[in-house]
């Protein structure tokens, strides 16, 4: 009943925001003047900027069709699902206090135990240009992760991120982050999180993230961006799922929010074991480099990352992984990608009738070295970690080529062809190659 009530309130707010698109203006009260904006969502703020309240969100409806390594038997499968269905509420109170709540009705963020929140945070902005944020949010790691899912170029972020999903992904927990800018060209952040994962004594896993960006050119159509990332967590005395798996750019093999490939969906297993006993591994570290350049309608970007899961038991070896991607995008209609210090932003069509058209190509590469024999591995319950021997070296390669149509500032339609290869990680039909197509309709407000 509670969930139904929340859903009703949420979608009522959504309907209000959409219906309000035709209304705009300023409302004067006995106190401070109120300014109402309806161009993108619904925002009400006092003219003195002491208080504000905004309702927004995004809806991403996907359809994909794929075969080969993307399925266990190699046969063709398809999926139709909501990739994201966010309702977002944010605002400011007493000028220096900000809040943000983002709930995912597609259940691809969060969990049933902790709530399907993409973010739920409070921030203090009184130490400008420094912001202190507390609550649930994704740790800062990587350029594509910093860029909103509304405005990343391809439908899915690069596959190399699958190697370090804990470093910037939706793992439940609470954290504190300090972030700030300097001289309009430097951005930095540091965060400490207590994850929803405990060691044998009940202590939560602690994670530390650092990110620094230098952008001497930092405006739309004129970008030079360089960044460095680091993340670490201590898995000593913790039983956890250490598997490194990848969808290789095809979310439909396994997702929520609708139909996926079900039991036939294949996520190649690159390393680690599902039930890794406490004391097997210790420090888990990842670092990354990021770079981007944009001139007018042309943009080029890439990232490189490494991860080392350090053995804490002499019977096992370290698990090592590295990955990268390189992407080039061009707006045929001449618009430049938006940019805010540390991340890319939306493309705003110059012609409201024809919209903006963008084409792109991205290559992802990921590699894992895991020489551990998981047949011999036993967890505390006496179960094998995974029923196979040494995994060895596995390489994943993904090609993405596609087109985006920004019909207006709210609607974006996308289509892409994805081709993947997983060397030394075939499916049940001995396929290492696979390809597929993905289409998305997005409404963001």
Automatic annotation (TrEMBL):
> Any keyword Signal?
yes
Q: Signal peptide location in the record?
A: 1-24
UniProt keywords, alphabetically: Signal
InterPro entries xrefs: Porin_dom_sf, Porin_O/P
Q: Which domain of life is it from?
A: Bacteria
Tell me the SUPFAM superfamilies matching this sequence: Porins
Q: Where is this region: Disordered?
A: 251-275
Gene3D superfamilies found in the cross-reference section: Porin (2.40.160.10)
Query: Any idea what this protein is called?
Result: Phosphate-selective porin OprO and OprP
């Amino acid at each position: 009943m509670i969930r139904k009530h929340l859903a009703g309130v949420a979608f009522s707010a959504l309907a209000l925001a959409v219906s309000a698109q035709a209304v705009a203006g300023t409302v004067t009260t006995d106190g401070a003047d109120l300014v109402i904006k309806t161009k993108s969502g619904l925002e009400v703020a006092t003219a003195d900027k002491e208080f504000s309240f905004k309702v927004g969100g995004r809806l991403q409806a996907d359809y994909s069709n794929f075969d080969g390594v993307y399925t266990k038997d190699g046969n063709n499968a398809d999926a139709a699902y909501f990739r994201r269905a966010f309702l977002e509420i944010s605002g400011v109170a007493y000028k220096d206090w900000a809040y943000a709540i983002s709930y995912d009705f597609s259940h691809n963020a969060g969990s049933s135990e902790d709530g399907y929140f993409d973010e739920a945070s409070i921030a203090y902005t009184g130490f400008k240009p420094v912001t202190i944020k507390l609550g649930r949010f994704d740790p800062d790691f990587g350029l594509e992760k910093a860029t909103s899912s509304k405005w990343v170029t391809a439908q899915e972020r690069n596959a190399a991120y699958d190697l370090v999903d804990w470093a910037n992904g939706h793992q439940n927990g609470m954290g504190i982050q300090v972030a700030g800018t300097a001289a309009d060209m430097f951005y930095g952040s540091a965060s400490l999180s207590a994850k929803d994962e405990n060691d044998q004594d009940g202590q939560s896993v602690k994670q530390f993230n650092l990110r620094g960006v230098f952008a001497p050119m930092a405006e739309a159509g004129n970008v030079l961006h360089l960044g460095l990332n680091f993340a670490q967590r201590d898995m000593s005395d913790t039983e956890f799922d250490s598997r490194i798996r990848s969808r290789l750019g095809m979310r439909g093999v396994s997702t929520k929010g609708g139909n996926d490939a079900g039991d036939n969906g294949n996520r190649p297993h690159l390393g680690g074991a599902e039930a890794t006993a406490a004391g097997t591994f210790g420090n888990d570290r990842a670092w990354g480099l990021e770079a981007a350049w944009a001139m007018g309608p042309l943009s080029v970007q890439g990232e490189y990352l490494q991860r080392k899961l350090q053995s804490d038991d002499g019977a096992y070896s370290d698990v090592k992984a590295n990955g990268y991607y390189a992407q080039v995008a061009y707006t045929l209609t001449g618009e430049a990608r938006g940019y805010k210090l540390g991340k890319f932003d939306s493309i705003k069509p110059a012609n409201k009738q024809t919209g903006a058209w963008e084409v792109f190509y991205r290559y992802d590469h990921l590699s894992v070295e895991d020489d551990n024999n998981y047949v011999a591995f036993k967890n505390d319950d006496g179960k094998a970690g995974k029923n196979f021997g040494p995994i060895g070296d596995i390489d994943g390669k993904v090609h993405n080529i596609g087109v985006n149509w920004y019909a207006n500032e709210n609607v974006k339609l996308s289509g892409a062809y994805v081709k993947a290869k997983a060397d030394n990680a075939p499916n049940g039909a001995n396929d290492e190659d696979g390809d597929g197509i993905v289409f998305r309709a997005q409404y963001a407000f």
